[in-house]
Amino acid sequence: MSSISIATASEVFDLLRDDLALVEKEFSRQSESPVQVVTDIANYLMSGGGKRIRPMLLLLGARSLGCKTDARIRMGAVVEMLHTATLVHDDIIDEASTRRGRPSSNTTWGNSKCVLAGDWLYMEAFQTALNERNFRVLDLLISLTQQMVEGELLQMEKLGHLINEEEYFDLIYRKTACLFKVSMQLGAAISAGNTGNSADTISATPGEPLTAEEQSLGEYGRNLGLAFQIIDDMLDLTANDNVLGKPAASDLREGKATLAVIHALERGTGADREAIRTVLADRSFEHVTHQQILEILLRHGSLAYAMDTACAYAEAARQSIADLPDGEYKRALLWVPGFVTSRDR
Amino acid sequence: MSSISIATASEVFDLLRDDLALVEKEFSRQSESPVQVVTDIANYLMSGGGKRIRPMLLLLGARSLGCKTDARIRMGAVVEMLHTATLVHDDIIDEASTRRGRPSSNTTWGNSKCVLAGDWLYMEAFQTALNERNFRVLDLLISLTQQMVEGELLQMEKLGHLINEEEYFDLIYRKTACLFKVSMQLGAAISAGNTGNSADTISATPGEPLTAEEQSLGEYGRNLGLAFQIIDDMLDLTANDNVLGKPAASDLREGKATLAVIHALERGTGADREAIRTVLADRSFEHVTHQQILEILLRHGSLAYAMDTACAYAEAARQSIADLPDGEYKRALLWVPGFVTSRDR
């Protein structure tokens, strides 16, 4: 097996099938709450056809470093649960009526229950993580969650306004790449405990330097997450309602400028800029149509630019793990970036 | 100084003045967020005239066991911050327009920002606690938060319905007494770290038995919290709008049956029961007036019953710490229950 060979999709799924099934079971166990509505909301979101990419990353990260304990299953469920908690609160914030083609949780259960169910899911994720008795794991999770929440607040402040690329990358880092990065680092953190080095990990002081493995797996996760979100934002602009299960161009309808739009804004004519500005301010296609916006993006090569950028981050992700020991898990990690950039939903 | 002597209010405030001032400062430091709106909401709620009873309990618990480190200041701010986080999310749930006589946070900032600001405050509290590197502290905080959130969800399910005393006590335990109890236990947990026994505390395995101090301080907090909330609920029934800074009998207006009301329901005539049932179902005094309800409660001695029950819990709180070593902090702890039961707002 050569160090630069890349696994196929079926190899990756064979490799992770058993672990992912255990993660599903563990997630169901964790989300069993003494209060029925919490269990209902968690199961509803979990059955909504998510890609389980975060647990997948954690499993691959941990396995690539030789992790053999059940911690990877528990923590795989934890990252999916954290992700689910953010979705529950996001549904309140976005006032979205649908998610992945079904009624959103707030439409079904109302804001009040969703606030509390989201809180409960956060706490359950922390509770499970706390039982690992590993401070590094907790450091990663708590600071992650705070960064994600700050990102949502920053995004709210920027709705309807023009932002530049730097602001865009900060937002998508917080929204997506940060959890991808931490999923990978958690894989490393729980594996360090397997290698006879557990005392160091468990009593880690805050701000301690990362190990080389944590560093490169974290870099991989960050790059992959950026690629993932750029693609997500592109699909939002270009796919039609039926494919994504939400209205086309819902970001623009919410006043959010994403990479292709920012690219066009910086290169467009006065009229182009004005058209985009109008949609963002209106938060609707009342005065400028979706088709007009797509025409502007195509004319300036903005969609191609976003695609190229995503592919560059995907390649950077592959480069990040160049020094990782060869093996089937590294081959699987090399496959993921291509999967992320070639998806159509 | 006799073991049964009780401090005066001014003695207690003298005793805690410096510590409480440091807690205020620490709270301000903790609530400084890179996102301005979080800082604004935290400061707004903090300046709303809260009684700081939770930090006070933590300080007294820790000091009574000889704690001399700054951990008590940090953790004092943490329990107030957790309390503040619950208030921010409660404001969304209750859809209250006022809190303590001022516009509520959701009225001022909107639901979306309040969901996220509450999340941020929870995470900041955990982050600060995590830096103590004490698993016992984290066990207490995370399981507390989950119980509180479950309590809010249970309460929502019971709105507009008749509940019995057992359900009432479960709800007020989760809503108030649980955080009082944990504030006291945290005082003990951070003090254990001072007594040369830190390794045990820090590597505490989940579910480890409590020390005798944690047990009795926790019992004190639980009893005091129940007394506190029974009084709060009584004041809600009897005080007028100007005193509490919210509409009179707002619990009934929200469909919440509290102790005096439950007492009257169990002893009242068919007509009395019907009147109470109507208000709870209507969530308003449209068909039955506030005055009519008060008349029912007075006729059955229900307010006196609630007051007696609160006083019994206050006395139980004092009994809980009988075995604590004598000293000024124990005297102060003996003062608090009387303060809680005699307040009028």
From TrEMBL, chains A, B:
Keyword match Amino-acid biosynthesis: no
Gene3D superfamilies, alphabetized: Farnesyl Diphosphate Synthase
InterPro entries linked: Isoprenoid_synthase_dom_sf, Polyprenyl_synt, Polyprenyl_synt_CS
Magnesium keyword on record: yes
Swiss-Prot/TrEMBL cofactor(s): Mg(2+)
Pfam family, one: polyprenyl_synt
The entry's keywords: Magnesium, Metal-binding, Transferase
GO molecular function: metal ion binding; prenyltransferase activity
GO BP annotation list: isoprenoid biosynthetic process
Similarity-based family: Belongs to the FPP/GGPP synthase family.
Protein's name according to its UniProt entry: Octaprenyl-diphosphate synthase
